[in-house]
Amino acid sequence: MFYTFSGKKRTWAAGTLQLLTLYGTCVAYVITTATCLRAILKSNCYHKEGHKAPCNYGDTLFMILFGVIQIIMSFIPDLHNMAWVSAVAAIMSFTYSTIGLGLGIKQVIENGTIMGSVTGVPAKSVADKLWLIFQALGDIAFAYPYSVILLEIQDTLESPPPENQTMKKASMTAIFITTFFYLCCGCFGYAAFGNDTPGNLLTGFGFYEPYWLIDFANACIILHLIGGYQIFSQTIYGSVEGWASRKFPDSGFVNNFYKLKLPLLPSFKLNIFKFVFRTVYVISTTGLGILFPYFNQVLGVLGALSFWPLAIYFPVEMYFVQKKIEPWSRKWIVLRIFSFLCFLVTLVGLIGSLEGIISEKIG
Q1: Which one of 59, 183, 228, 336 has the minimum C-beta count within 10 Å?
Q2: Which residue spans traverse the membrane (predicted)?
Q3: Beta bridge partners of 258
Q4: Any residues with CB less than 8 A from the CB of 255 and at least 6 apart, and which?
Q5: Which residue, 31, 23, 35, is CA-closest to 291?
Q6: Cα maximum dimension of the chain
Q7: Is it the case that residue 138 has pLDDT exceeding 80?
Q8: Tens digit of pLDDT for each residue in 240-252?
Q9: CA distance 138 to 132
């Protein structure tokens, strides 16, 4: 479908950006999971030792542990075998979002007032404030990453009804629910803590009690990310392995399967190329997470890279072709202006987030 509307070059460009965004999202999941594991330990430490106790824990070991789990899970054959993973991830996402929202509302009620201001967090200079705004735009753009996997999900659907009709209903429902929770969590989080609002309400310790609920919410995030990592990775696995099979049809390394039987486990088939590629892939995402463990800044870069080209530009171009929109017509002009404004959001978001990563790395 995309090739029909956009041509070979644009299809390759969109596919490359899509895979790059999926890869970057997996790196972000490595970072976030380690942050949540550390938050669970810190939550229990603060509960026992007091809120001012020096409860410091590193990230590296947790990232390595997450990588080991993902290497094992990466040998789930494909998306068709992962419905249960997606379902668990969705339930966990709903659970921890509800907990974060509830804690935010509770804190606002306890404060008896709304914290913060319309102008947001103050900065030392106008330049610093602009960098923060640019980075925030990247973070906001990352809030709707489903577009990078929408076509893959649609491709797995059965008809009737037509796949595009099913996806239209699913997308509208998902956008409504996601927007509701994101706005509520963001607004109530800032209303609860004002300028001291942490980047992640459940790991930045705006909340200390009830500590068991904080632990449970972070455990839900971890389970969500374990499943989410696979949902995004399987698309890359399928693309690379399919390309390799077509490129090297006579290669035994790429195409041969070998039956293995390990103690206490059922027999299974192993492909050497898949084993090597998927293992190296997980190791690379884990290594980048260890090298750049900056949650908000990494999300900003990913959001900026994917937002305009995948969520705005290519869909708008496809719409022009599909609906045969005349150049310089009113609808054509409005959509072109809209696309350009979104491009500016992507540009400043990318610049601000890269500046944030560089500042954190050399600071």
Answers
A1: 183
A2: 20-41, 53-76, 82-105, 174-193, 213-232, 275-295, 301-321, 333-354
A3: 270
A4: 245, 248, 249, 271, 273
A5: 31
A6: 71
A7: no
A8: 988 899 988 888 8
A9: 10
Q: At 140, list the tokens.
A: 């906001």
Contacts 24+ apart (CB under 8 A), 145-151: 145/21, 145/25, 145/302, 145/303, 145/306, 146/171, 146/174, 147/306, 147/310, 147/311, 148/18, 148/21, 148/22, 148/25, 148/232, 148/306, 148/310, 149/22, 149/231, 149/232, 149/235, 151/1, 151/2
pLDDT tier at 2, thresholds 50, 70, 90: very low
Query: In whole angstroms, what is the distance from residue 245 CA to residue 85 CA?
Result: 27
User: Do residues 286 and 29 make contact, with C-beta atoms less than 8 angstroms apart?
Assistant: no
The DSSP-derived string for 259-324 is EE--TTS--EEEEHHHHHHHHHHHHHHHHHHHH---HHHHHHHHHHHHIIIIIIIHHHHHHHHHHT
Task: Indicate the pTM of the whole model.
Answer: 0.79
Which residues, including other chains, have CB under 8 Å from residue 156's CB and lie 6 or more apart? 79, 80
- Taking only the tens place, the pLDDT of each residue in 78-123 is 555 566 766 777 788 888 888 888 888 888 888 888 887 777 777 7
Q: Is the pLDDT of residue 274 over 80?
A: yes
**Selected residue with higher pLDDT from 223 and 310:** 223
Q: Which helix (H) or strand (E) holds 161?
A: none
Most confident of 101-115, 135-149, 285-299: 101-115
Within 10 A of 306 (CB to CB), how many other CB atoms are there? 24
Q: Tell me the pLDDT of the chain averaged across its residues.
A: 79
Query: Looking at residue 257, what DSSP letter applies?
Result: E
152, 207, 275 from 239: Cα distances, Å? 11, 42, 15
Tell me if 103 sits within 8 A of 201, measured CB to CB. Answer: yes
End-to-end CA distance of the chain: 47
Kindly report, residue by residue over 321-348, the tens digit of the pLDDT.
Answer: 888 888 888 889 999 998 898 888 788 7
Count of C-beta atoms within a 10 Å radius of residue 309: 21
